[in-house]
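$ ./design --mode recover --in tokens.txt
reading tokens...
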């Protein structure tokens, strides 16, 4: 099984979890408080499950790099719209 096959399975699992969260949310809106409390617990469990599948998907997905190779030389605290000290002295 390749990473692409796994990624599609992970995405399907996330989709199912999110759909179930939506259905439980609709039920919780109409439920009395004790039942709503139980449904909220189920929503929490489904959200944790979706986070798990999302983590696996993120680990196996092939993301392109956000920076060009020459941009990797910039320090981590660099922001393109950041004012330089020299610019502030001119003002």
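writing sequence...
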């Amino acid at each position: 099984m390749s990473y692409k096959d796994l990624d599609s399975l992970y995405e399907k699992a996330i989709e199912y979890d999110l759909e179930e969260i939506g259905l439980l949310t609709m039920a919780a809106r109409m439920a009395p408080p004790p039942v709503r409390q139980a449904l909220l617990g189920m929503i929490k469990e489904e959200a944790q499950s979706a986070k798990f599948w999302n983590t696996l998907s993120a680990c196996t997905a092939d993301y392109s790099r956000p920076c060009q190779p020459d941009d990797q030389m910039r320090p981590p605290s660099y922001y393109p719209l950041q004012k330089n000290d020299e610019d502030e002295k001119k003002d």
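exit 0
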